[in-house]
# Entry
Amino acid sequence: MEFTKSLIKGKLIKRYKRFFTDVKLGKDIVTAHCPNTGSMKGLLDEGNEVYLRPNNDPKRKLKYGLEIIKSRKNLVGVNTHMANRIVEHGLNNNLINELKYNDSLKSEVFFNKETRFDFLLEKKDQKIFVEVKNVTLFRNKDTAEFPDAPTTRGIKHLLTLIDAIKKSYKTYLIFLVQIQNMKYFKIAKDIDEEYYNAYLKAKKAGVNFLAYRCDISSKKIFIDKKLKIIDD
# Structure
């Protein structure tokens, strides 16, 4: 995924009310849209280098959107709306080894009245649901973690993936690690033990879990490398 517009480098001042970030661009201070409603734990230190996407849409009040934060020498893609686009690019270009050469791909497909999954793939008469989780948390130099806050929605998705297996679907959950230099991935059990338990239940039921790291720059973000998942 290439950015359609060149990103602009600045310095983070603060993030507030979930959707707003103040950023210093040269001598000016601008307010940028924050496309991530999560906690963004560990990323919001004042003075962190950030990259903004300029926006010329006259209907939008904010003229910039936050795309990347540099934290502890690693670039981190924080735009959660980009995650599905990155994975879709990866699926279409066969960058995910376990999900190559599909016959069809549909996005945002309902499984039942309450839940839809990010993708439905078909391959040799097998229907495959794929759910994507964006990962931005790292607390040591080489291990990415999810979630960064308790997530009842995430637990619901895991349990529904189990239900899909019972109806003859194959299911995958991809942890998309938008963090440079990571080697491993694990569930942040200390942050959400209920999610960790649901993850173990889903794994036992046959849900396939994958973690893939992104290559990140101010020009593009794309799937780069599979990471080893560590189970505590």
About this structure: The chain has a mean pLDDT of 95.
